[in-house]
# Entry
Amino acid sequence: LQGPMETLIPERIDGLLAAEKNISQSRLVNGATRLQPITMLTGQAAGALAALAVKQNKQPRDVSPRDVQRELLAAGSTLIPRWYSDVPWRSELWQATQLLALYGVMDRPMQIDEIGDTPLGAEATWGVDRPLDRKEMHEAIRRIAELRRLAVPKFAAKEARSVTRAEMDAAMAMLTARPEPRPPVDGASSEDVVTAGEFAVLAARSLLQ
# Structure
């Protein structure tokens, strides 16, 4: 179940959070949120929000939803039903693909397998090791810029092909006012082709800034 963080926060009362069956919802939505697995996850989200509010010395309503999402992902909580055989659970790449799918960046919708003992998404792959496509990189960077309320970069139309490390670094620099040199990868060249998985991790880090 996915729901807005505001469902946990009273409209006019500070310092109080709702959880379990007390969250803001309609009767129709209550049919899904009343079940125990969902109420447990709602409590986990409320707890993460409360801890961040105390840590940041803010009212819960002033905490960034992305900070809460980061904490939930670090704890292994799934934010969107996406499971792939080539993305290990709780790895940084898993957290990145979860976050990117949640915000409509590099999403890979897939069929969920629920037959017998078959793991969820056992037959689906995200494409971690495939070369990053230039068109997908441009679309991802534009979407992240929109989400972060930055000037949306305009890319010249070019042929679709794999992206080199130098091209990726130049494109990612458009998402920051003060580009910092990226530390070189051991044994890597600026002309090396970047994989989709490598870019996904960097894209998620940029989204969380």
